[in-house]
Amino acid sequence: MTTLADLDPDQRPRERMLRLGADALSDAELVALLLGSGRRGTSALTAAHELLLAHGGLAGLARADGADLLRAPGVGPAKATRVVAALALARRFGTSTDRRSTLRTPADVARVAAPLLDGAADGRVVVVAGDRAARVLGAVVVPGADAHASPFAVREVLAETLRRGGVTLALAHRHDDGAAPGPEDHAATAAVADAAAHCGLRLLDHVVLHGGGWTSAGSEAGWAP
């Protein structure tokens, strides 16, 4: 079996990236760099090919969590966390402030939040913080928040918004069972809107992704300036 040591030094992933740039590398080569090494008798490049094959390619690997990766032969906690962290950063780049997306409609909220709600996301809450003109300052999964919990994590949502300097905010979560927003979603929306107003913030909307689409749970959406 060919290992990285058997390759010409110029053809090894690390050397190729330094010489040609990351865009010249295949998905497997980039994953191999994250893994750092393979298992006994198997190179990092072979291990990367196996991971991609097991998850149906890069898109499937991006949906995997640490527990999924730990089931792969030769992948321990250090390798699993490196891969998950790198792919999480890639998802966050899709909502990066560098792009200065502006939230104008519930569809914009769904688009910005969707990458953070990929995979097994039922109950995960995303807050999108914006400036006064609703230009995106950041989007993040709210730590400790569960969309199905009662009471809803209002304090945590507002804290994440303020931490990013937000004046406007939008919420999103996903129903993995495909159900449309229910009374609990509307109640959570009202609670956040009321608390936000007391803090000088404005809730734009609360969008629930379900099936292949989304529905606004904002009974009185705050899109008007």
From TrEMBL:
SUPFAM superfamilies listed in its UniProt record: RuvA domain 2-like (SSF47781)
Domain UPF0758 intervals: 6-80
Gene3D superfamilies membership: Cytidine Deaminase, domain 2 (3.40.140.10)
Start and end residues of each RadC-like JAB domain: 104-217
Keyword Hydrolase among record annotations: yes
InterPro entries for the chain: RadC_JAB (IPR025657), RuvA_2-like (IPR010994), UPF0758 (IPR001405), UPF0758_N (IPR046778)
GO MF entry, a single one: metallopeptidase activity
Keywords, in A-Z order: Hydrolase, Metalloprotease, Protease
Keyword GTP-binding among UniProt keywords: no
Family: Belongs to the UPF0758 family.
UniProt-recorded name of the protein: DNA repair protein
Species, as recorded: Cellulomonas triticagri
